[in-house]
Amino acid sequence: MSDQHIRITPSILSADREDIVSEIAKIAKVSDLIHLDIMDNRFVPNQTWDLAQAQEIITASPTPIDAHLMVEDVDRLAIEYAMAGAGSVTIHAEAALDIGKTLRGIRSHGARSAIAVKPGTPIEGYFEFSDLVDMFLIMTVEPGFGGQKFMAEMMEKVRLTRKAIGDRPIWLQVDGGISIDTIAIAREAGADTFVAGSAVFNSPEPAAMVEKLRQRASAL
Ligand code: DX5
Ligand code: ZN
Questions:
Q1: Residue 185 lies in a domain
Q2: How many domains does the chain contain in total?
Q3: Separation between Cα atoms, residue 170 and residue 167, nearest integer Å
Q4: Would 70 be classed as within a structural domain?
Q5: In a domain, 1, yes or no
């Protein structure tokens, strides 16, 4: 497993929204991408940034943005986020109407493309899109809120996805409840890209926590 590059993609969901640029500055240098959770209060029972606000964050961030779209109108919005300059755009399989077309559209605007599945959604049916995705995201909590408990029972899905990826250069991300206590479990199952929200931003030293998480995952 050591040949897989470890990526830490901190989520700013748990950061101070009034001063997001300073919050990003705290972790930008030590992060591979900055994970931006977009929620519309329809696909999930919570609302975060709209496209105009996200555009400002994308423009201001010195580190590429990993846009995780938890929205109903995802086929259209995914293209908008790619056009806005997000480094990576993730669509939920449960929300997309035309997954293949949307993944192609994301790539055609220069962003990496990704598919996410909620805890209750099997992943196998989406392996057929392997040639069109740059990352699979296995949710390890029910999407909507930060600070929830890591669902270790999702590790079977992570293992299955790692196996299906084979030699392809597809990243395998986990999101939800990742901390210094759980990151090794997800790494061991085959994840190589880790979202961490509350673990990073509830820490008195967010950048040091990102480094600690990276070390913990790299030690395996
Ligand atoms: C949840 C979001 C996560 C969230 C993770 O719906 O997708 O990215 O920010 O937060 P923690 O790391 O606190 O579980
Ligand atoms: Zn997320």
A1: yes
A2: 1
A3: 8
A4: yes
A5: no
Compute the distance from residue 139 Cα to the ligand 2 centre, in Å: 8
Q: Say whether 50 is catalytic.
A: no
CATH of the domain at 61: 3.20.20.70
C-alpha 110 to ligand 1 mean position (Å): 25
Residues whose CB is less than 8 angstroms from the CB of residue 182 and which lie 6 or more positions away in sequence, other chains included: 150, 152
Residues with CB under 6 A from ligand 1: 11, 13-14, 35, 37, 68, 141, 143-148, 175-178, 195-199
Q: CB of 128 within 8 A of CB of 156?
A: no
Least Cα distance to 30 among 6, 46, 54 occurs for 6
Tens digit of each residue's pLDDT, the chain (220 residues) = 445 799 999 999 999 999 999 999 999 999 999 999 999 999 999 999 999 999 999 999 999 999 999 999 999 999 999 999 999 999 999 999 999 999 999 999 999 999 999 999 999 999 999 999 999 999 999 999 999 999 999 999 999 999 999 999 999 999 999 999 999 999 999 999 999 999 999 999 999 999 999 999 999 7
175 is catalytic: yes
